[in-house]
Structure prediction request, 196 residues.
Amino acid sequence: MADPEGPGAGRGRALPGFESPAAGTEAPLEMLAACHGRIERHLDLIERLAGHLARAGADASARDAAAQLLRYFGTAVPLHHADEEQDLFPALHEAVAGSDAVCLRALTEGLATQHRRLDAAWEALRPVLRRLADGAPFDAAADWPADAAAAFLAANHEHLAREDGELLPMAARLLDAAALAAIGRAMRERRGIPAV
Prediction:
């Protein structure tokens, strides 16, 4: 299967086998944006996995991809949502007043609601990917939840577009260095990363 990082990147790597450089917690907005890029690549992996299953069945590459997706969406994405809901959203609320605060609250509440919907949509895929990763008998035509996968992909793409188009640019305009440093500290603590 093609490497999700693009032509020539990571030659010889099969599904999933990719990692990308990441911004660190000292630049929390860049780290959130980099995470969005990794989410997009994992969404692409879901699409490619469906095609791979149809062509090659539940082979070792498919099992590895399923395991990669379980790790990423089971660990990194919940941390990312916590970064936004527990640190970024409150910092933004502290930075604005008046009618801007009302608009911001509508945005952050809408995004938090989308997080819950994304979590629920993930739960429709997770058990199927677990079976696949564990090597259980798997019939791609009968067992792959195409509608649930399509709904998960569409909801994520819509959500990421809103965060990249509205939330992160707003945060870059409104948050000062002290607020960004506090967000970065909280991100490190959440992940058990020593202070820089």
About this structure: The first helix runs from residue 28 to 56. The CA atoms of residues 49 and 62 lie 6 Å apart.
